[in-house]
Amino acid sequence: MKVLRSLLLVEWSGLLAAIVIGSVALALVSPNFLSEFNIYVLLRSLCVSLLVGFAQMVTLGVGQMNIAVGALGGLVAIAFGGMMEVYGVPIVVAVPLALLIGAAGGLLNGVLTVRTGINGFIITLATASAFTGIDFGITESIPFYKMPPALVAFGDQHFGAIPALLVAPLIVAALLGLFFSRTVPGRQILAFGGNAQAAELSGIPRGRTVVLAHVLSGTLAAIAAVLAVAQLGSAQPTIGADWLLLSFAAPIIGGAALTGGYVSVLGTMFAVVLIALIQNGMVLAKVDPYWVQFLLGALILAAVWLNRWRAIRTGTGG
Amino acid sequence: MNLAVESVTKSFPGVRALDGVSLTLKSGEIHALMGENGAGKSTLIKIITGVHRPDAGRVLLDGKPVEFGAPRDALAAGIGAVHQERNLIPRFSVGENILIERLPTRHGLVDYATIDHEARRFLDMLDRGIDTRVEVRTLSVAQMQIVEIAKALSLEAKILLMDEPTASITEHETAALFTLLRKLRDDGVAIVFVSHKLEEVFALADRVTVLRDGKIAAADEPMATMSRQRLVSLMIGREERVARLGKRTVDASEVVLEMRGLATSLGHRDVDLSLRRGEILGLYGLVGAGRSELARAVLGGAEMTAGELRIRGTPARIRDVHEALGKYRLGYISEDRKQEGLILMHSIKDNVAITIWQRLAGALGLIAPRSEISAVQPFVRKLEVRAPSLGQSVGNLSGGNQQKVSIAKWLAANAEILIIDEPTVGIDIKTKTYLHELIGEIAASGVSVLLISSDMPEMITLADRILVMHGFRIVGEVANDHRYETTSKAIMGRIHAAGDARPVAAA
């Protein structure tokens, strides 16, 4: 009973159960599920999604939203591809530059939010449109195809069923976990998201904290973009166009508080895995992919309901 | 360190909160800052702590003018404060909240072992019962207040401002706090103390400054020569009045709210309680006794695991406040009016009318502003809510006026059973007397009141009978003879007896 209760208290307990049950069910129904190739495909699809989820998770932590996650990702992707194809910039220089562009986009979001005092939701809605405009303006909707062979090779490399690309989100996850649980800036972001007024009265600098969260979010979106380019082998201007729903779904299903102040790195990861599992299962079962969209919506509702139910059960409030 | 405020003026939209106010704080002195709600005490404190900037006038530290752009500047200058508002991060641990201004690190990482150890040091000065590792959101309001005080103490500031630190803690903890403040004073700290409890101020303060309507009514006078009567008349501009509660007769046969052997998932066991029509039933207990939690469980906030709840004789299971009011005519006035009772951004009118919108709505489901105003106006007037208009947003009102609005809301909704949780926390004398008379009046008109309060004098003034709660159980009933000495002794006797028999359950 006690073990069950403490398990219930952990946000991702339900997710883990769903993943285990789902995997077993899929393995029973479809023998292909456990094939090395299918697992490779599944894991490979996680890489970008994980970072997209993290990018939103960080802004949710400070109590804001970043609607520009996908738009910024698209912009970084074509800038990254473009500088390598058109100017022949080597990968080792192009990657940091791409991350810098992402950070700069986040910096813009953060500074605008703090300076104008307008809600970050509105600001990033506007900058999202602007980023997408630049993205398609520069490329005229034409992708950059000639990516350096080393990058493409890295995107395809795998050790058995494990794609090399997975290294990036795993390292990022470990760093984020450490950042939010053990570093002062990380705690300050969560403090600010938990109670902005209290944080400010406690001497936590408002401007710096909000800006930092946005910069981090932009940087994570940029990492996602770089991985997407490596995975696709080309820099498509449409990269990021379908990130928005996922970016909210992952952290929220993972137990993050929409009002800010609480995020779960592990929960977000499990949520991404669960979503990928559903998508994979649907493909194996040859279901129309549009139903994935429907299931994702249902899953968000179920997750929020589960959190609420747990809060009442354990008497910890909303 | 000495601090001086020189003829500071501060205006907010529609209100001049401070008008040429000066204050001198000397090291090694406890300075009481007194005044009714809305007199400008909190505004003055917020100017000293850098939350607000004065429109005119200046603040001097050791004779040198300082300008604080943000609270962190004041903190850096050695000024610590307990503000009236709740200022804790709900999902952070108690320890981390206490040390949030300067989280200890080791190798660049936050060091939780040191946090627990350090926080324990400051928390132990007040209350050993609070675990530093639990999340603040699981604490009761009183425990949160203790954490806030520990947080201010942890700054080891040279100037310590305390805006109603004792509003929701027990006498025992208040005594511990006072011992501590006296020690700090003797160590050379300058302390500002704001409280509505005159007994506390007389027991603690060395000097006093009184504000009335944003102006100085008495400046830096020694407490020793101040009489209670004079202090009160300085604050309210006239003599203090004792609450007049008319004689009420309670019909013992008609029980409106009854609990039999009730147990909840929050830890309540064997709770028996019966509230009669027109009765004021007191529910007294120390911090963590489980009183507010019981109210919350009744209203669907937690599961009832055993026993029975009956309302007007029929078994009831309430899911939420809406159902409580709609189906059972039961209203709940929260102790935490700012977070749970009111929508601060909305107007007085909307806050009061919110419970009766359904009744006011016309044929098409539309609400006419005029019918809203005519429904709200009598209650707002009756409770003397002080505001320029009904359209004023509640967030801009003083604490007392906010409480009046939240009471008006349930009166307008025509509730027949009211659970009132700490109705006068942080409320000034004049309004308090007024609220007491009001609660008496409501009861006389047939409304049954379950009164939760840690304010012993308040309990003894108002309640017909007093149930004593301890460790999530009812440990006794005291018939109230409205005499402080005998009744308070009887109540404390029950608590001590229960405390000896059984350790206090963690809240």
Characteristics of this structure?
heterodimer; A: 318 residues; mainly alpha; ABC transporter involved in vitamin B12 uptake, BtuC; two-stranded antiparallel ribbon; 14 helices; 75% helix; 1% strand; globular; B: 507 residues; alpha/beta; Rossmann fold; 2 domains; 6-stranded mixed β-sheet; 18 helices; 22 strands
Class based on secondary structure composition and strand pairing of chain B: alpha/beta
Radius of gyration of chain A: 20 Å
Question: Largest beta sheet of chain A: what is the strand line-up?
Answer: 1-2
Backbone shape of chain A: globular
- Category by helix and strand content of chain A: mainly alpha
CATH architecture level-2 label of the largest domain in chain B: 3-Layer(aba) Sandwich
CATH class of chain A: Mainly Alpha
Instruction: Give the CATH class of the largest domain in chain B.
Output: Alpha Beta
What is the CA-atom radius of gyration of chain B, in angstroms?
A: 23 Å
Number of helices of chain B: 18
How many domains is the backbone of chain A divided into? Answer: 1
The CATH fourth-level homologous superfamily of the largest domain in chain B: P-loop containing nucleotide triphosphate hydrolases
What is the element string of chain A, with H for helices and E for strands?
HHHHHHHEEHHHHHHH
Largest sheet features of chain A: 2 strands, antiparallel
Dominant shape of chain B:
globular
Assembly category: heterodimer
Mean pLDDT across all amino acids of chain A: 90
CATH topology of the largest domain in chain B: Rossmann fold
Topology readout:
The complex is a heterodimer of chains A (318) and B (507).
Chain A: H1 2-9, H2 13-29, H3 36-61, H4 69-85, H5 91-116, H6 120-139, H7 149-156, E1 158-159, E2 162-163, H8 167-182, H9 184-194, H10 196-201, H11 206-232, H12 244-253, H13 265-284, H14 290-314
Antiparallel strand pairs in A: 1-2
Chain B: E1 3-12, E2 15-25, E3 29-34, H1 41-48, E4 56-61, E5 64-66, H2 71-76, E6 79-82, H3 94-98, E7 105-106, E8 109-110, H4 112-124, H5 141-154, E9 159-163, H6 171-186, E10 190-194, H7 198-204, E11 207-212, E12 215-222, H8 228-236, E13 255-264, E14 271-276, E15 280-285, H9 291-298, E16 304-311, E17 314-315, H10 321-328, E18 330-333, H11 337-341, H12 348-353, H13 357-360, H14 369-382, H15 399-412, E19 417-421, H16 429-444, E20 448-452, H17 456-462, E21 465-470, E22 473-479, H18 484-501
Parallel strand pairs in B: 3-10, 3-11, 6-9, 9-10, 15-20, 15-21, 18-19, 19-20
Antiparallel strand pairs in B: 1-2, 1-4, 4-5, 7-8, 11-12, 13-14, 13-16, 16-17, 21-22
Helix pairs in contact in B: 4-5, 14-15, 15-16
